Amino acid sequence: MASINAVANSLLLPSRSSSSSSSSSPLFPNGSNALSPSKVSLSNSRSQSSTTSLRMFRKPIANSPLHAASAAADEAEPTKDETPIELKYPAYPTVMDINQIREILPHRFPFLLVDRVIEYNPGVSAVAIKNVTINDNFFPGHFPERPIMPGVLMVEQAMAQVGGLVMLQPEVGGNKASFFFAGIDKVRFRKPVIAGDTLVMRMTLVKLQKRFGIAKMEGKAYVGTDVVCEGEFLMAMGQES
């Protein structure tokens, strides 16, 4: 029985010769066939450090010049809009057409300078447009070489007529038989209006003195988003006898 145990122990336990042979193995010169925990930790930290550095190299750091350049390049990529230009810009709405305007204003050609009302708040304000064309009768003389809409027509005719559309309404009590443009103040012409422009005019009632038949209004005229003319207007209106 003892001899059987001795044989078993000799098979399970490595001999000194095998231990010494493993210690002299060229693969593990220190006598160990595995890395120690400290070496494994050091190896892993170096691997993680190199991986992090590679990631930093591949992805630009936020707020860095490289990141800003990359973002700008992404934003610079144009997106094609296939909509034809004639369909991109909607037309002005029509609140009052030329026939309705003619029923309110007493003016006629060549002094009716309002084509359409696009917004109207009874007794408060109105927004109207005048399509300026080369066929307007004032262009041959103002000026032949550079057609510019006369400022006096913008103020005393076109804008004043939009004011008349506000005043000659039942809400205000005006009467076109005795309605007059009485005065202007603080008028400024910002930019010339030329043939081909669409003059958009807003007139707003600021103060109304029915007892004296006097109304004060503020007006601005635009071409696109640019103010081309602005000022204060004084209107005189009477009552039907």
Q: Main attributes?
A:
lipid a biosynthesis; 6 strands; elongated; single chain; 241 residues; alpha+beta; lipid biosynthesis; EC 4.2.1.59; six-stranded antiparallel sheet
Q: How would you describe what is shown here?
A:
This is 3-hydroxyacyl-[acyl-carrier-protein] dehydratase. With 241 residues, the chain is an alpha+beta fold. It contains 7 helices and 6 strands, in the order ααααααββαββββ. The chain has helices at residues 2-12, 16-23, 37-58, 65-75, 85-88, 98-104, 151-167, and strands at 116-121, 125-131, 179-189, 198-209, 214-223, 226-237. Strands 1-2-4-5-6-3 form a 6-stranded antiparallel beta sheet, with helices on one face.
Short description:
The chain is of the alpha+beta class.
Q: State mean pLDDT (0 to 100 scale).
A: 78
Low-confidence stretches: 15-28
Element-by-element helix/strand order: HHHHHHEEHEEEE
What is the number of E strands?
6
Biased composition (Polar residues): 30-40
GO biological process, one term: fatty acid biosynthetic process
Keywords: Cytoplasm, Lipid A biosynthesis, Lipid biosynthesis, Lipid metabolism, Lyase
GO cellular component, one term: cytoplasm
